[in-house]
Amino acid sequence: MPKSRQQKKEVLDNLIKSLRNGKGAVLTVFSGLKVQSDRVFRSKLYEEGIEYSVVKKTLLKKAFRELGYPEDKIDNLKGNVSLAVSAKDEVAPAKVLDSFIKDNQMVSFAGGILENQWIAADKVKALAKLPGRDELIAKTVSAIKAPITGFVNVLAGNLRGLINVLKAVQNRQ
């Protein structure tokens, strides 16, 4: 059943709000996707806190016009279009979609939005290869922690050496 003008306006407003508040968004094109694989895929996205929806191209084009993104990118898309938006992590939508695309040839990247700029599909693929936010934080913390840990071990080594010398002196007497 067709949507009323009011329903379309609500969908458009939600779409604009989602794109405006999201840190990262990825557009995909798909056709012939099986319901079961789509259901599993949607649950993975939900676990990561990613909003996912199939969007009409006309509404997406209006949202792009409102937000100042290039509308011509929508005109070139063939097939059904979906949008995945994350409010927490810029890379998360690209990562989850990339793992899904490896298993399902029916889906492909169409592009994305990062820091309020349009990025091409090949850049979205490259973005998917980057480590996630949590992994980057863990690497940074370990890089900061490593020299301090080494310094503590050096100081502890000197104390251990002193204790060993004192024990050796005690054993001689």
TrEMBL record:
Keywords: Ribonucleoprotein, Ribosomal protein, RNA-binding, rRNA-binding. NCBIfam families: PRK00099.1-1 (NF000955). SUPFAM superfamilies: Ribosomal protein L10-like. Forms part of the ribosomal stalk, playing a central role in the interaction of the ribosome with GTP-bound translation factors. Transmembrane segments: none annotated. This is Large ribosomal subunit protein uL10. Part of the ribosomal stalk of the 50S ribosomal subunit. The N-terminus interacts with L11 and the large rRNA to form the base of the stalk. The C-terminus forms an elongated spine to which L12 dimers bind in a sequential fashion forming a multimeric L10(L12)X complex. The keyword RNA-binding applies. One of its GO terms (cellular component) is ribosome. It comes from the Bacteria.
